[in-house]
């Protein structure tokens, strides 16, 4: 029988039953039991309606679209939340923009420590997205990509740790009205081990994977986790071969300031999830990409840039921090046309995207973190034309060779340049 040492009688013992008969002990047990019961009642009955109203209100305000959530449940002891039948409508109609059958999230107590969401597991089921491209090439989500007002305060970096993310049974319908075609994605299953900007040591049991039927064709990717790695490193291999880039540029939400007439993209990449003890997680893209047979024209249809090959070795692009490390970059036989028209406008200036406002950038963006082991331009040609001169002036600079080594945007860094 369990015995508890008593301070009242030297060397004596008091049975648990005797201890429980003491008024003070019984009073404290009653208080603890009442607190546990109150916590359970509040968690089960009060939190769900408050959370349901909060989610619907916050999403409606942020997305400018009416959002509803049919049901929410919360387990206060397992710290698990379930949202059912979330629906986001179009801004000007009752048509469904996005719907989600069910969301299950298991929180960790460390969420309170970080004052940020830390999830052991996140499951999404029955996600459905309806996208529309209108005749003017705008999208039904274009308003969500609009830049913030110039006087808006810069947003703080998001803090989160999401582990064991799984999406099952997703679907996407893309109504491309200018060409009269509807693209479909069915049976979308996606698994991501973790996405995190916070140090976290949650056990990861999800392997990276992507599976979907795109326009009737099965598409599948899979990855593997190093079983005995202390970093819980997981890699997903991605390969592309002769992807016709211009065919997809037409779907960009914002038009490019140039016309890409031809470009074929091939790539052998690895998307690596890495999580080390006591350090923030990293999501890194590495590998090699090739752009072939590239031809670019300016907005007036005149030739701007052409080259047969751009070979880029990507040592590491951290998708969470933005830090980019390039190995070797080779640009072969580029042909660049630099021209100034009679009004003094340079074609290169017109080919640049509009810079963001100073107010928007003030304190809001991180400095560029880029390092480059070697850049080589081989057998380049520059065509120069100036219509402001009388008579008009034209010149050609051929056999251009440029070699740049050890370039970095870090403060105080130096590089070797040979031209």
Report on the structure:
- There is one protein chain.
- This protein has a 17-stranded mixed β-sheet that branches.
- By secondary structure, it is an alpha+beta fold.
- The protein is elongated.
- The protein has 6 helices and 19 strands.
- The longest helix has 41 residues, at 23-63.
- The model is unreliable at 1-12 and 357-363 (pLDDT under 50).
- A hairpin with a 7-residue loop joins strand 18 (393-408) and strand 19.
Q: What are the defining features of this structure?
A:
419 residues; alpha+beta; 17-stranded mixed sheet; two-stranded antiparallel ribbon; 19 strands; 15% helix; 50% strand; elongated
Order of helices and strands: EEHHEEEHEEEEEEHEEEEEHHEEE
SS-derived structural category: alpha+beta
Average predicted confidence as pLDDT: 85
Q: Give the assembly state of these chains.
A: single chain
Please outline the major beta sheet. Answer: 17 strands, mixed
Approximate helicity band: 10-25%
- Kindly provide the radius of gyration, computed on alpha-carbon positions and rounded to a whole number of angstroms: 29 Å
What percent of residues are in strands?
over 45%
Q: Termini, distance in Å?
A: 88 Å
Number of strands: 19
Shape: elongated
Which spans of ≥5 residues are poorly predicted at pLDDT below 50? 1-12, 357-363
> How many helices does DSSP assign?
6
């Amino acid at each position: 029988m369990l015995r508890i040492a008593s301070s009242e009688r030297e060397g004596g013992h008091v049975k648990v039953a005797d201890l429980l008969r003491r008024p003070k002990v019984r009073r404290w047990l009653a208080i603890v039991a009442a607190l546990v019961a109150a916590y359970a009642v509040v968690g089960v009955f009060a939190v769900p309606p408050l959370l349901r109203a909060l989610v619907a209100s916050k999403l409606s305000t942020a997305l400018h679209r009416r959002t509803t959530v049919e049901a929410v449940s919360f387990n206060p002891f397992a710290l698990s939340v379930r949202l059912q039948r979330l629906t986001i409508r179009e801004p000007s109609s009752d048509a469904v923009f996005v719907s989600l059958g069910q969301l299950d999230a298991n929180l960790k107590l460390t969420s309170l420590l970080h004052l940020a969401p830390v999830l052991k597991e996140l499951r999404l089921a029955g996600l459905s997205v309806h996208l529309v491209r209108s005749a003017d090439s705008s999208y039904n989500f274009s308003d969500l990509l609009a830049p913030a007002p110039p006087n808006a305060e810069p947003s703080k970096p998001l803090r989160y740790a999401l582990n064991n993310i799984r999406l099952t049974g997703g679907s996407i319908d893309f109504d491309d009205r200018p060409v009269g075609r509807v693209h479909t994605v069915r049976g979308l299953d996606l698994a991501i081990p973790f996405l995190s900007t916070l140090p976290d040591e949650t056990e990861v049991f999800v392997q990276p994977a992507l599976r979907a039927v795109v326009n009737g064709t099965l598409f599948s990717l899979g990855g593997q986790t190093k079983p005995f790695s202390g970093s819980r490193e997981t890699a997903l291999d991605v390969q592309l071969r002769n992807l016709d880039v211009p065919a997809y540029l037409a779907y960009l939400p914002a038009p490019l300031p140039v016309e890409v007439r031809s470009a074929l993209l091939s790539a052998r990449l690895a998307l690596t999830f890495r999580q080390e003890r006591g350090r923030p997680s990293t999501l890194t893209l590495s590998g090699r990409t090739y752009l072939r047979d590239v031809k670019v024209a300016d907005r007036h249809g005149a030739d701007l840039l052409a080259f047969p090959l751009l070979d880029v070795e990507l040592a590491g692009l951290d998708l969470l921090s933005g830090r980019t490390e390039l190995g070797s970059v080779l640009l072969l036989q580029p042909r660049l046309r630099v021209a100034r028209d009679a009004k003094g406008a340079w074609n290169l200036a017109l080919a640049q995207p509009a810079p963001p406002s100073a107010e928007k950038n003030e304190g809001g963006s991180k400095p560029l973190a880029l390092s480059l082991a070697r850049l080589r331009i081989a057998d380049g040609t520059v065509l120069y034309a100036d219509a402001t001169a009388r008579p008009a002036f034209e010149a050609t600079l051929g056999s251009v060779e440029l070699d740049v080594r050890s370039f970095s945007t870090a403060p105080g860094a130096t590089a070797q340049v040979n031209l």
